[in-house]
């Protein structure tokens, strides 16, 4: 009789384990929020993270922060993005904000500490009424 209960417990546990949702793939949100945004040439990805309505990619480059930021200014403008803010802080970091339609984008550039080059972070978000979001199929729960 105990073997029967054990087998039932194992079966229930197996089914319950199969029903767990996997965390969403951050790369899918990156594709949605940063469609049309290019990475600086020869950059190396440091990290990727995403939530339900935003994604963040951190990259590094051997080039200076000024050179990388200038490249992004040109590439965003050529890609149909409107630069809405471009601020350099006292610590030397630069933050650029841009929009494409209703899609917001923020890029922060910072000189690497103790090594040549730049680390930059790109953040994109999903907003209501965004045509890119409207084209995306919703994930089934």
Q: Which features characterize this protein?
A:
141 residues, alpha+beta, 6-stranded antiparallel sheet, 33% strand, TATA-Binding Protein, 31% helix, 4 helices, disordered N terminus, disordered C terminus, globular
**Which class best fits the helix and strand makeup?**
alpha+beta
Broad shape:
globular
Query: Can you summarize the main beta sheet?
Result: 6 strands, antiparallel
Strand content: 25-35%
Low-confidence spans: pLDDT under 50, at least 5 residues?
A: 3-13, 133-141
Structural description of this entry:
This protein has a single domain, classed as TATA-Binding Protein. It is globular and about 40 Å long. Strands 1-2-6-5-4-3 form a six-stranded antiparallel sheet, with helices on one face. It has four helices and six strands; from the N terminus they run ααββαββββα. Helices cover 31% and strands 33% of the residues. Mean pLDDT is 82; it is low at 3-13 and 133-141. A hairpin with a 5-residue loop joins strand 3 (82-88) and strand 4. The relative contact order is 0.17. With 141 residues, the chain is of the alpha+beta class.
